[in-house]
Amino acid sequence: MSTPIIFNTLHFDQPWTLENYLKVGGYKALRKVLAEKMLPEAIIAEVKASGLRGRGGAGFPTGLKWSFMPRNYQGDKYLVCNSDEGEPGTCKDRDILRYNPHMLIEGMAIAAYTMSVKTGYNYIHGEIFEAYERMEAACEEARKAGYLGQNILGSDFEFDLHNHLGYGAYVCGEETALLESIEGKKGQPRFKPPFPATFGLYGKPTTINNTETFASIPYIINNGGQQFADLGVPNSGGIKLFSVSGHVNNPGNFEVPMGTPFKTLLEMAGGVRGGNKLKAVIPGGSSMPVLPGEIMMDLNMDFDSIQKAGSYLGTGAIIVMDETTCMVKALERLSYFYFEESCGQCTPCREGTGWLYRIVHRIEHGEGRPEDLDLLLDLCNNIAGRTICALGDAAAWPVQGFLKHYRKEFEYHIEHKRCLV
Amino acid sequence: MINIEIDGKRIETENGTTVIEAAHKAGISIPHFCYHKKLSIAANCRMCLVQVEKAPKPLPACATPVTEGMKVFTASEQAVKAQKGVMEFLLVNHPLDCPICDQGGECMLQDMSVGYGGGASRYHEEKRTVLSKDIGPLVSAEEMSRCINCTRCVRFGAEIAGQMEMGQAFRGEHAEIMTFVSGTVNSELSGNMIDLCPVGALTSKPFRYKARSWELSRRRSISAHDSLGTSLAVQTKNNHVLRVLPIENEDINECWLSDKDRFAYEGLNSAERLTKPMIKQDGKWQEVEWQVALEYAANGLRHIANGAGAEQIGALATANSTLEELYLLQKLMRGIGSDNVDFRLRQSDFSADDKQQGTPWLGMPIADISRLDSVLIVGSFLRKDHPLLAARIRQAVKKGAQANIIHSVDDDLLMKVANKTIVAPDALVAALSQVAQALDAEKNGKAQTASAGAVAIAKSLSCGGCVAVLLGNFAQQHPQAAQLQALAQQIAALSNGKFGFIGEAANSVGGYLAHATPGTKGLNAASMLATPRKAYVLLNVEAELDTANPQQAIAAMQSADLVIAMSAYKHHATSYADVLLPIAPFTETSGTFVSTEGRVQSFKGAVKPLGEARPAWKVLRVLGNLLKISGFDQDTSEAVRDEALKGVDVAAKLSNTISAIDTNAVSAAGGLQRVSDVPIYATDAVVRRSAPLQATVDAATPQAWLHSEELKKLGVQVGATVKVSQGQGSVSIAAAADDKLPRGVVRVAAGHAATAALGAMFGTITVERA
Ligand SMILES: Cc1cc2nc3c(=O)[nH]c(=O)nc-3n(C[C@H](O)[C@H](O)[C@H](O)COP(=O)(O)O)c2cc1C
Ligand code: SF4
Ligand code: SF4
Ligand code: FES
Fold first, then answer.
1. Is the CB of A57 under 6 A from ligand 1?
2. What is the C-alpha to C-alpha distance for residues B528 and B122, in angstroms, rounded to an integer?
């Protein structure tokens, strides 16, 4: 395997210290940007050339997003890092915070320089207190060493970063709910437009990116966008962290180039547990449609390949299910999650997620009815695309995916009131 | 301008409007729940989903801005499928209790489900229940399972009322609308949430289970409880007023109603209603026939006029009497030969009377308040005295207007206040003249010598935009009211602005137009009581609650030989009056109010007078006849009104201009000074008897409010009972701390039985440990 880019300090005893980060060339990119007084346009051009797409789930091109920030805006602008990572299966950002916090800081500082932002927030998922403390310590180190604060590295660039511990609500990972939450309000998504670039935190222009997105920036600046892009495949530049979980022998986070075959990743994760047969895979975090194992074994892990097969790369969290998995039970668990995590603001999601869950729950408990499956699909159509934020879609897609590929199992459950497996 | 097409109809609309606004303007209806034109966009109900050409999925019409060439389909297959889908979701957890729901018949959900709901439910799971909540005496949140979480109530509180008393707690399906930590909703505008709530979740507590909406008849009427002239509908059944609702009137009340106007009607059928004429004989009250009572009254008046002289008779009316009543009252008095008539019962300084020609008024249309850039509000308990005007100013402030305050208390106005000067009542004139001085310096390039606070206000007022100086109830009741008026005039002139009075009551302008003022020959309200008369005619007056100096008023009543009280209620007058004539409150008579902006609005009675009560204009007409005064033969209240306003160009009469007046401040008296407000639910006889209003936090028993340093000086603990005295009277009330009060003052409310033994609303007052 090639040398890691994001987990480049993991070989140290204490990978998170500034000292160790500096040993692997840390803060070189920021130094370069400031020393060369790189033009924001030039940085954005590099990021665009890198093919970096948002690692938070939606895959939006990062360079393009940065170019939306108003240039000549008078007044405050904000930069926000989304470390709320709450999607089941996804646990990559947490490891960046724990093991390489300075790479995030450096990436954010470069982004702040590019968009002339002085204040940044890093919104960290509520339950990962250790990661929060690591980030706090790292920011303090960075401040002392002149990588944060005023006159960064002797220049007139000024940027400070504040870590904000959330309260563990999945919906606060949705970027506008996250902003509301930082503002001290209930974490509920805002209707868009306006988008954060025009009306963000405290109503000011704001750019929000995922932790991994920011952490990819230093490499791009050091080596040029093209080199990052070339690591991956067309339309999916660079490397990516994949969290492999479920029925594998060696679950964990794996940093590999975009376009790596799923088969390879599965091998890296030690293969399916107990030599069992692979049944199904959710390729991009629990909200993405499930794909049958046979299909997955022929797929490469990049945006286009997964999409062509009928799912999405999402956050790159791969949930592996072996032949012992009851798909009804699995869906019941997923539906329960979205039901409990809906913010309750908009009607289809508030009322629909509970309805979906209750039907699947009934089927799982032997009380299914033949008409339930069509009803489920109809409800999904009435939820997806009808809500304020994508949590509605996230609740509908798993149901649609499971029914598309495993309808027979559901029918069996309804008819025989028990599992097929 | 932007051209769009909705359902094939070409529409030209302004840039920045939303699809739903454009559709409504073109008369195309789009189903909706959370959208409300006066509230921010929440886009949470999703009922308004429509198809938009080139958009991959249906878009919410309430939140989608129009763009050039946009093609919208509100009833296409895609749109209707989306709308029906949302309707189904809304109904799954909605109880099927329409037959016992107060909202039935006027429910948006019920109406819309007829059009978009299915015949049978596909939902076979358990329905959610949401616990009921007690949020106070006015708004019922008994049936929260009906809530569709549209957050209209929440947004109303946060945006219009200015305080977010309701919120959506919990998440997802567990989301519930509730108050914070089981508090009550205390806003003086809370009833609007009932109107806004599209379902039967928030309903009127007093109206609960009283009638089905379709059984009610409705009559247009005008608010009797403040000076705005709010348009309202009085709804009745079996000759009872059962509900009062706002009628939309963008120029006045928009679509809102204050709780006072909404719930005052509950006082109309109070057990205290006077329903039969009564006279006191040998110290005992006896019910008598109208004829007997009227002759008794007429004879009494004739006797005094012929004996002690007509100038020994005084007439006092409240400013919420109708124009017709006020007109006939003064006509009667002048017919008898007395000019002693007045309706300005809480005023204490009448020195402006011979220095102004016109009728004092707001100085501008109410709607113009919304366009102000800077306003100076002097001596006003704005939120409680004029709830809807406060709401209008709040909106203006949100759009960037600056509110400046000069007052003796610093109550939270629930809006951003740019500058404020809070001083004791005897320093109010000085504070205002500082502003005038600062403006003069600002304008004429002189060196600033005024206080920093005054300079800041002056800077705000010289912004060059729309500016106004408004004098509130406190300023009008102030012992130096004329000086305040003259200074306001000066400040308005220096800032090229307007100035005006926010009228205290429904007919604060109408009283002048009706000539219910003493003119140059008669005694004004204060003088009539300071130099007691032998006889009084009272119209709607409760002497100890409606006057500037209750002690003096009661003494005057008690020393009089004859007191004729025309009243809708049996009240304290039974202790001093000789004749009680039952008259009709505004819902039981036709009449006219002239609002603070000079709008003449007539209304009809909504129900027949209770018992033997009669409209006061008719009572006065008969009295005129019995006293053989000519010109008392009007057949209708309209005839009285037309006579009163004959040849009067109301608009031309309205003027606040006052000629030069001595603006030297009076020397400050030592000791504590009284600051008094008339609490929102103590302003007139009807609201004082509305049980639900009296159960609100705003109707709490008055306390003696002092700065905590003053309390310390007195050695009094918060909550301890103190003896508060003025003149010969004293009351025992609880002490309370308000560190926003200036030093040297004690705030004690007037208009309340608990403080009615005290004297003037202004002036020295003592507080001791009880
Ligand atoms: C319900 C929901 C939860 C989300 N949670 C996260 C999250 O935990 N972390 C994250 O980076 N993005 C999350 N997102 C996506 C963000 O809204 C946003 O697209 C992302 O932070 C943008 O960053 P990127 O462009 O770098 O991916 C979530 C979106 C939704 C709808
Ligand atoms: S889709 Fe769900 S989570 Fe998103 S705003 Fe609507 S109710 Fe909230
Ligand atoms: S109580 Fe009524 S107004 Fe408030 S959110 Fe519920 S349905 Fe809407
Ligand atoms: S009316 Fe548009 S979403 Fe509610």
1. yes
2. 75
Q: What is the pLDDT of residue B669?
A: 62
Structural tokens at position B188: 């003086």
Q: What is the pLDDT of residues B343-383, one digit of tens each?
A: 999 999 999 999 998 999 999 999 999 999 999 999 999 99
Which residues are CB-contacts of A237 (< 8 A; sequence separation ≥ 6)?
Answer: A50, A51, A52, A53, A225, A228, A229, A230, A231, A258
How many Å from the N-terminal Cα to the C-terminal Cα in chain A?
A: 37
- Give buried/exposed letters for B612-633 (b at 16+ CB in 10 A, else e): ebbbbbbbbbbbbebbebeebe
Helix (H, G, I), strand (E, B) or coil at B11: strand
Q: Which DSSP symbol is given to B250? A: T
Q: Provide the percentage of residues in chain A whose pLDDT is more than 90.
A: 97
* Per-chain mean pLDDT for chain A: 97
Residue B654 token pair = 């309205």
**Do residue A344 and residue B170 have CB atoms under 8 angstroms apart?**
yes
User: Could you identify the residue written with the tokens 């408004």?
Assistant: B470
pLDDT band of A420, cuts 50, 70, 90: confident
pLDDT at position B596 over 70 = yes
Q: Going by C-beta distance under 8 Å and a sequence separation of 6 or more, which residues neighbour residue A319?
A: A88, A89, A245, A246, A281, A282, A286
> Is A346 an 8 Å CB contact of chain B?
yes
Instruction: Give the helix/strand (H/E) hosting A79.
Output: strand A78-83
In this prediction, residues A3-20 reach a mean pLDDT of 96
Q: First CA to last CA across chain B, in angstroms? A: 71
Closest chain A C-alpha to B84 CA, distance in angstroms: 9
Please answer whether residues B58 and B78 qualify as being in contact, where contact means their C-beta atoms are separated by less than 8 angstroms. yes
Residue A194 preceded by cis peptide, ω within 30: yes
User: Residue B400, exposed/middle/buried by CB under 10 A (0-12, 13-18, 19+)?
Assistant: exposed
Is some CB atom of chain A closer than 8 A to the CB atom of B90? Answer: yes
CA distances from A198 to A77, B18, B41, B671 (A): 10, 18, 17, 58
